[in-house]
Design goal:
By secondary structure, the protein is an alpha/beta fold. The chain folds into two domains: 215 residues, Glycogen Phosphorylase B (Rossmann fold, 3-Layer(aba) Sandwich); 172 residues, Glycogen Phosphorylase B (Rossmann fold, 3-Layer(aba) Sandwich). The longest helix has 18 residues. The radius of gyration is 21 Å and the shape is globular. It comes from Brasilonema octagenarum UFV-OR1.
């Protein structure tokens, strides 16, 4: 099986840790380690936080963690046309088929990348992600049934667009990250896509930490104390990991935490990751550490009372898995279908839907015995369902289907 060549296509790679990019990067690296011929085609745009119509990285070929990465210049026209449609989406205005195509045609794209894929990936398993970006739409249209998709679906306006239906219809394979994502797709597209959609695999995302947190904790490693001092971590804190973005329900999280503080709560909310730092209050009880090295991230998470992710739209939520492997429980929003399902299946976290429920959950996680019990259940869930061997077996089962 190792003779198969695999090409991943994603708008950003190597310097940005968004969900789809992490899914692509970790799977590519694991397949490469197992001897597969793997490459990634991506753009010269560094991250979603850079201008999508400007090249912030040089074109060319590099090797990142053993994986060949080819970067191509972005399309530099169409920014205003894209923002015209994005304004309509943000303000809940109608987005008809004309605007849907306008959005995808002027989102981040690279004709040079698509031309390369057309000419150089015959016989490859080509997989594009995520479905919301013009690059992936162009790839699937151009390769005419040769490219597969790992869509990373959420229940959002774009999910129901004609352009999404076109991508699913013309994809060779469809790879889902969770059962909930697949159920959503079948509910809306099952009648039109049919059996191919219903039989598409759910592969998940493999999760392994690069350091042995449990061993460090048992040995009272100086690393744990050193990170506390270096980052000025408070004695009691909860952690949010990810992009600081209104779309991630950050404002609700902050409001809930302020309510908790007003009722005498004495823990701090620590933020890790990029995004809009202006969203984080500067008053006592909030601490934004921004981006930190990967090892530092896990050392910080492992000392928190719990991880909080109130986003409604997650196609997998890697941070939940990482928190459980770090030995801490989680709090999610009940409206987050995927994250709530993870918590119910694992018994490793608490879904909430109000400030009162949030405060009650913080109190439960603040109890060392109850928090550890939830964390142990979550860790067992990750280790049984999301080992890399399990994920890669599912991946190839889907790739060789039909």
């Amino acid at each position: 099986m190792n003779h198969i060549s695999i090409t991943f296509v994603t708008p950003w790679y190597g310097t940005f840790a968004g969900g789809a990019e992490v899914a692509a990067r970790t799977l590519a690296e694991q397949l490469s380690k197992r001897g597969f011929d793997v490459q990634v085609l991506t753009t010269c745009c560094r991250s979603p936080f850079d201008n999508w119509w400007q090249n912030t990285l040089p074109p060319g070929v590099e090797k990142i963690n053993g994986v060949i990465v080819r970067r191509f210049p972005v399309k530099q026209e169409g920014e205003n046309l894209y923002h015209e449609v994005n304004y309509r989406i943000i303000h809940n205005m109608e987005v008809d088929e004309k605007f849907q195509h306008q959005f995808l045609e002027n989102s981040i794209n690279s004709q040079a990348l698509v031309d390369y894929a057309q000419a150089n990936t015959d016989g490859h398993l080509v997989i594009g992600m995520p479905y919301t970006q013009g690059l992936i739409y162009s790839l699937i249209q151009s390769l005419e049934g040769r490219a597969s998709i790992m869509p990373c679906f959420h229940d959002e306006p774009q999910f129901k667009w004609i352009t999404t239906a076109q991508m699913l219809e013309r994809s060779r394979h469809i790879f889902f990250l969770t059962e909930e994502e697949k159920t959503l797709a079948i509910k809306h597209y099952g009648h039109s896509i049919g059996r191919r959609l219903i039989e598409s695999p759910v592969i998940g995302v493999g999760v392994e930490l690069p350091i042995d947190i449990e061993k460090l904790q048992k040995s009272n490693s100086s690393l744990l104390e050193e990170i506390k001092v270096r980052c000025n971590l408070p004695e009691k804190f909860f952690v949010y990991v990810g992009r600081k973005d209104i779309g991630k329900n950050i404002l609700t999280l902050i409001d809930y935490f302020k309510d908790y503080q007003s009722h005498g709560g004495d823990a701090t909310l620590v933020f890790l990751g990029g995004g809009d730092a202006n969203l984080v209050p500067t008053n006592k009880g909030f601490l934004d550490l921004g981006f930190v090295p990967e090892e530092d991230k896990y050392l910080i998470i492992s000392q928190a009372l719990g991880l909080i992710n109130l986003s409604h739209n997650e196609s997998f939520s890697l941070v939940l898995m990482e928190a459980w492997l770090c030995g801490i429980p989680v709090i999610v929003h009940r409206n987050g279908e995927v994250t709530t399902a993870h918590c119910k299946k694992s018994q490793g976290g608490i879904p909430v839907s109000s400030s009162e429920e949030f405060e009650a959950a913080l109190e439960i996680l603040s109890s060392q015995d109850k928090g550890k019990m939830l964390a142990r259940s979550g860790k067992r869930y990750v280790q049984s369902k999301y080992s890399w061997d399990c994920v890669i077996n599912q991946f190839f089962r889907g790739a060789y289907q039909g």
